[in-house]
Design goal:
Number of domains: 2
Order of helices and strands: EHEHEHEHEEEEEEHEHEHEHEH
Bound molecules: flavin-adenine dinucleotide
CATH topology of the largest domain: Rossmann fold
CATH architecture of the largest domain: 3-Layer(aba) Sandwich
Number of strands: 14
Strand order of the largest sheet: 7-6-5-8-4-1-2-3-9
Structural class: alpha/beta
CATH class of the largest domain: Alpha Beta
Largest sheet: 9 strands, mixed
Radius of gyration: 22 Å
């Protein structure tokens, strides 16, 4: 017996994985199930059944109240064993990336994180992942008995199917208490944004001359109802914006409808982060900047001249 088990703390990511999982399960001839952790998990099972899970393994324990990768990995491992799953698909969120290798270690399983594609070839699961700094895509096959794969969130859209019956299977978790104690929780400072939710993303790069000029970029983002992101130099070298705002290989990979690159050269380590953007607009004073190769619309010009004109026009048109 073997099967595919899906887990993500983000419902949308889990449903997207289930949608893709239906296709994989059919091709590999395996059952598809979902792992749900937490005190209200059983109540939410129906939506997972509607997206293709035939079993929902549900478990709760006081030790799961706050996320700790070690404890969540132990809980998931017990679900994997009970489900007799040999393929585990996890959303490659920040938590998912921490969980996947810890879970894999418990089964001596091969593990791939940040997967950008899943397919079945010759009855084997083929996993795609970016390689060589984002310049190429490598295809991998895990040869261990168990496979743990963390898949980029939003890679697959959630699509319910007609049949929606499923079985809720409670799992009696046996978990050790956490090794660390939570003393306090504080919300992030005001102004910190979750770029993965951005419909419009205005990204700024080293073309910006001064930190104070960020207000220009923020005004443009506000005019478009969008969020501000940046390249690595802006967050990690100049520290003008938070690390959470960096887009690219080592940062966020949002999928906005509209992405504006302002004073950004377009190095691959940045642009891999916005490959899923629907429309790309670039403003750069260098005609030969690589960003223009991937831009749908390019404006060659000084950002200090172009951006104020854009803001003025947007405010006229949209009144904000
Ligand atoms: C392992 C590794 C991982 C990395 N991960 C990331 C990552 O996740 N995200 C990331 O962003 N980078 C990452 N980098 C860095 C990346 O390689 C680039 O160095 C970086 O993206 C360049 O940032 P930039 O475009 O802001 O700066 P630059 O490359 O210096 O480009 C600035 C651009 O601004 C233009 N410009 C200048 N003045 C103006 C003006 N007045 N008006 C209009 N345009 C103007 C210039 O023509 C130029 O094209 C990584 C690098 C490595 C080695």
């Amino acid at each position: 017996m073997s099967g595919i088990l899906i887990y993500s703390e983000l419902e949308e990511a889990a449903l997207g994985l289930l949608t893709k999982g239906r296709e994989l399960a059919t091709k590999l001839g395996k059952p598809l199930s979902v792992a749900l952790l937490g005190n209200e998990a059983a109540d939410q099972a129906d939506i997972y059944f509607a997206h293709g899970a035939t079993q929902a393994y549900v478990g709760d324990d006081p030790n799961l109240t706050h996320f700790q990768a070690r404890i969540y990995a132990a809980a998931l491992a017990q679900m994997v064993t009970q489900a007799q799953a040999d393929i585990v698909l996890i959303g490659s969120t920040r938590r998912g990336r921490e969980l996947a290798p810890r879970l894999a270690q418990k089964f001596s399983a091969g593990c791939v994180t940040d997967a950008i594609g899943l397919s079945v070839q010759d009855q084997r699961l083929v996993i795609e992942r970016r390689a060589l700094g984002g310049n190429t895509v490598s295809a991998k096959v895990i040869t261990s008995q168990h496979q743990v794969i963390a898949v980029m969130p939003k890679l697959y859209d959630a699509e319910p199917e007609a049949a929606s019956a499923g079985e809720v299977i409670p799992v009696s978790l046996e978990l050790e208490p956490p090794a660390t104690k939570l003393i306090e929780r504080r919300s992030k400072e005001a102004g910190v944004v979750n770029l993965e939710e951005a419909e419009v993303l205005v990204c700024v790069g080293r073309g910006l001359a001064n930190k104070d000029d960020l207000s220009l970029i923020q005004t443009l983002a506000d005019s478009l109802g969008g969020m501000v992101g940046c390249t690595r130099p802006i967050s990690h070298e100049y520290h003008w914006l938070a690390e959470d705002q960096m887009v690219g290989l080592s940062g966020k990979e949002p999928s906005p409808h509209l992405y504006l690159a302002i004073g950004i050269s377009g190095q691959i380590q940045h642009t891999v982060g916005i490959m899923d953007a629907k429309v790309i607009v670039a403003i750069n004073n260098d005609t030969n900047a690589p960003i223009f190769k991937i831009a749908d619309y390019g404006i060659v010009g000084d950002l200090y001249q172009v951006v104020p004109k854009l803001i003025e026009r947007l405010q006229q048109e949209l009144g904000r």
